[in-house]
Amino acid sequence: MLLFAASQLIGHWSVATFDAIAVWLSNGILAAALLQLHRRPAVAVMTACLTINLFSNVIRGDVGMLLWLNALLNMGEAFLCAFLARRVCGAALDMRRPKRLLTFAAYSAVPAVAVTAAIGFGLVLALTGAGLNTAAVFGIYSFFIIELLGLLLVTPVLLLVARAHRFKGMTRAGTPEAVGLFALMLVVTTVVFWQKDLSVAYLTFPPMLLICLRLSPTKTAAALILLAGITGAATLTGHGPVHLTRLAEVPGLEGVSPMLRRLGIYNLYLLAMVATVLPISTVMTERRRLETRLRARTLAAQEARRKAEDAAAARSRFLAMMSHEMRTPLNGVAGFADVLASRPGLDADAVRQARLIRESSDGLLMLVEDILDFARGDDALTTEALDLVAVARETATASLAAAQARGLKLRIDDRLPVQARFIADRRVLRQALHPLIANAVKFTEQGEVVVRLDRAGDGVCIRVSDTGCGIEPSFLPELFEAFAQGDASIRRNHSGAGLGLALAARQVRRMGGQIDVDSRVGEGSTFILKLPFDRAADVVEDVRLVEEVAAPAAAPAEESGRAPCVLVVDDHPVNREVARIMLEAFGCEVVEVCDGQQALDAVAEQPFDLVLMDVRMPNMDGLEATRRIRSIPGTGEPLSIVAMTADAMPEDVARCLAAGMNAHMAKPINQAGLLSMVNRALSGDLPAARVTLEAEAA
């Protein structure tokens, strides 16, 4: 109300002093108040402002209908503008956004002023009986421009000021720069508009553009008000480039003073300033708001990524630790079961019981591996040129003991080209085949299990067939779901967690392949893997026939007649004892040490044919011990070192090989696997050791 009263006083002073009004601010102030207030306060403000307007009209000398017409038109224009703004700009009335500012101008301010001008001048012309002449048209034009400028200059500015808290942090410039920009604007505007020798009104735009680019809309609005005050006062007093305008001789406007005609030009200048500066200011504010939000979201995304990476690292550490801690006791159980089963003089029941212990430990190990692999997720594939038949034979070896115990034949049917090599990930392929072969053995009471490898289009087709019980057709749709079981009742004949087929299907999908099943109840099942493996360069080999998976032969003796000498490095006495008993059964001489430092000392004192190296040990771990052994001149480089560890995750294997080990053997170990590794070491069939730069720097 105070602003409204002040605007009325300024209007009276302007008319009394200069016989003209540069900008009419009252309606804009009232419209902003109506948009900010609730219903009851708004009614009170409207009543008070109407009273002030009537009192102002009395002072001005209006009588009769004109006394009320002016006040009612002002109230109506403000009310209509506020009503339309509520409808088109939304309840928030957020003038920070350019779209809402333009919407307010086009759909609220312009219609409100147009309606008011039409009603007001229509009534005046009707009451006076005058026609629509040139002077009347000019009066309508001047009224429209002055009223529209007042709404566009005051209402958005007051709404922006009312929401100044929303612009906190949106200003790029600091206080010294803001003061400097305001000072520049005031100086340039004063110099330009307090002279009338040069038409340089355009010089006032650059300082205002700097203000709207660097400061908030609130400060930009304040700068506009100051500019309007300076330029309006200068123009009304006869100064400024507006008065350099040459007025055209227009018939019918002889009675209109030159000041009023020039004020129309000034109003266009001010309207252009408002239409330029406020939208740019809101655009820059919106951009800064979006930048702030983007920075906040980027920081949030980075924090979420860090947390996800930390969670993934924690998960990897957990899986590695669980794998290690589960495999360590299983190594003792499985190893001593093998030792007991092969001990001479045991009766048949004791041998059978020892083998049952071994089978149970194998089943537990399979379950542990399935759970860990399933929880691990999908890592990137590590491809190499592989002999797929060798991988299939290696995978089937894990189920060989169970097949022999059931009296089953476990065969590899190789129908691939003789020299063929294919680009694939060894570990992922094994994880896809292992559950299929293990399930085929588990669910087959008699007959055979056949793993057939053949070409299929541009890839490979692997079939795992059995002569078992088959799968019920009703269960086939959920066969590859996690924890799904064909018989989940308490009367089921076979144990398992239901993870094997789900893991196999996931690994097949990772390789870009497809898995299907063909099963008949009572006749058996065939799992079909179609894998898009690219073919690598062929390797010349002996012709391979359909063969049966068999256990490896005994370890060869040295040509010199000396027994092979093996160093077992492990901090766990049970693991050392298991390895020693198995190796001695092969005719090997065994030396035991319990950490990496003792392994270094032992290698320096006597020659060894093979070192079985644990990884996690006190004093010096197996990786550091391997690197130091490799650095021993003449001794360390040709020595075969194999990791025999419960660290069995893929990154553990890569770390062992990078440290200079020839191969990796995961616990729990068995006699067949250990004998195969000894055979390969003595025959020189192990891969060459290589120490990477990362390992040397570690």
Give a description of the structure:
It is built from 21 helices and 13 strands. It is elongated. A hairpin with a 3-residue loop joins strand 6 and strand 7 (524-531). It is 57% helix and 10% strand. It is α/β, with parallel strands linked by helices and 698 residues long. It has helices at 2-18, 26-36, 39-60, 65-89, 98-128, 134-162, 175-193, 205-214, 217-236, 258-341, 348-376, 388-397, 400-406, 426-442, 500-510, 573-585, 596-605, 622-630, 650-658, 671-682, 693-697, and strands at residues 384-386, 409-414, 422-424, 448-456, 459-466, 514-520, 524-531, 547-548, 565-569, 589-593, 610-613, 641-645, 663-666. The two termini are 78 Å apart.
Please provide a brief summary of the model:
Helix 3 runs antiparallel to helix 4 (65-89), helix 6 runs antiparallel to helix 9 and helix 8 packs parallel to helix 10 (258-341).
Secondary structure topology:
Elements lengths: L1 H17 L7 H11 L2 H22 L4 H25 L8 H31 L5 H29 L12 H19 L11 H10 L2 H20 L21 H84 L6 H29 L7 E3 L1 H10 L2 H7 L2 E6 L7 E3 L1 H17 L5 E9 L2 E8 L33 H11 L3 E7 L3 E8 L15 E2 L16 E5 L3 H13 L3 E5 L2 H10 L4 E4 L8 H9 L10 E5 L4 H9 L4 E4 L4 H12 L10 H5 L1
Averaged pLDDT, please? Answer: 81
- The share of residues in helices is 55-70%
Strand content: 5-15%
Total of DSSP H or I helical runs spanning 4+ residues: 21
Give the low-confidence spans: 486-497, 541-553, 693-698
**How many E-type strands?**
13
